[in-house]
Amino acid sequence: MTDHASTTATTPTRAANQPKATRRQFLSTTAAVGAAAAASALPINRVAWAAGDDVLKVGLVGVGGRGAGAAVQALSAHPNNKLVAVGEAFSDRLEDGLKAIKANAPTIADRVTVDDDHKFVGFDAYKHVVEASDVVLFATSPHFRPQHIEFAVEKGKHIFAEKPVGTDAPSVRRCLESCAKGKAKGLTIVSGLCYRYQRAKQEMMKQVHDGIIGDIISMDCQYWTTGLWHRGSNPAWSEMEYQMCNWLYFTWLSGDHIAEQHIHSLDKCIWANKDQYPLVATATGGRIVRTDSQLYGNIYDHFYVLYEFDNDLKLHSTCRQQDNTATQVMDYITGTKGVANVQRHTIKGHDGKALWRYLAPRGRDAKPDNMYQNEHDDMFAAIRAGKQIYNGDYMCKSTMMAIMGRMAAYTGQRITWDQAWNSQEDLSPAKYEWGPNPVRPVARPGVTAFV
């Protein structure tokens, strides 16, 4: 039987009753909160490591596949980065994760210096990791991201946060407020929306923003994959343990795969659109192959969302997770002068002639364009240089965009940005403890109400 923590905690306070915000007010939220926070916080972290090569203590919360990968990348970013503290819900997963980090990257194994006193298990493990670290990597299931970021900002720690950063509107509002406070404190906050750190895509987006395809008139993105992992069940597990072990399949934990995975495609399109977010979403979706609720919780296996923007711009967005189906991850940005194929880093005119393509640097000194490593390299370089990277705005807004699409599909209704942002739907469990945790029914368009 898995050795689980006995730690319990009540649901944290959520900003569910805050005044409603319009789309225009939303776009200025970060600036307003940041200005208020600046009055009470000195930006000491902006220059904390300006000397350059001092040791930075790294903490990791969530030691699954992505968490272990993030830890390897963080340690690979600089020889004076050390992993000093780890937090997990389950102790066996913590130990397995530490072994995987050392095994997959033996050259940095000597900088995994997590002693037994810095291995924390339970729902409150993140607090201990934050307090022991200079930089914290958050890679648990997305539901917990807002409370983790909030605490790290309170303690003045730099943050790497995997995507998405919430699973409902109250949690995203909470996260955006925390990020704005972190910005005012001079904290670096880097998002796991890693395509923004791929050099090839940075060059492509520069071309798009400089007008090579003209004015954008439509966008299309597909994220079609097979099914993902499932950890099975154990008669000794409580319902909460089962859900957290198989968190992908429960909306309260993952946000559904439109938020947990397809957010990458949505964020690339928004990046191309200079971070201008949609006004309205209409959608469809459902479960064709994920029909076993015992195995697959309450998420869908496919979505189609039509996002509408200013100036009649539309984004056609599709995603699916179904075994034995064709796979494709592609994004197309169509303008008045041509079309950008984002994944292939090519741009063609409407006559089919090449306008631009990315040419990777060559030569002995050329570095691999590994977007996962790039984001950690950039983050730790900025911290040591006394500079700030702040991804808080787009990581919150792209999360909200994905949730907005899910809301439209689940309800079958036309959902505006203001409705989505001000939604009062709180997916949090009644308690954070090992025991019962009732599963919400699978959403039924036309029956499930927008809240």
Write up what this structure looks like:
With about 450 residues, the chain is α/β, with parallel strands linked by helices. The protein has a nine-stranded mixed β-sheet. A six-stranded parallel β-sheet has the order 4-3-2-5-6-7, with helices on both faces. A two-stranded antiparallel ribbon has the order 1-17. The longest helix is centred in the last third of the chain and has 20 residues, at about 390-410. About 35% of the residues lie in helices and about 20% in strands. α3 crosses α4. It has two domains: about 10-195 and about 375-390, Rossmann fold, CATH 3.40.50.720; about 200-360 and about 400-430, Dihydrodipicolinate Reductase, domain 2. It has 16 helices and 17 strands. β10 (about 300-310) and β11 (about 315-320) form a beta hairpin. The chain is globular, with a radius of gyration of 22 Å.
CATH class of the largest domain: Alpha Beta
Number of strands: 17
Share of helix among residues?
25-40%
Write the CATH fold name of the largest domain: Rossmann fold
Concise account of the structure shown:
34% of the residues lie in helices and 19% in strands. It has 451 residues and is an alpha/beta fold. Strand 14 and strand 15 form a beta hairpin.
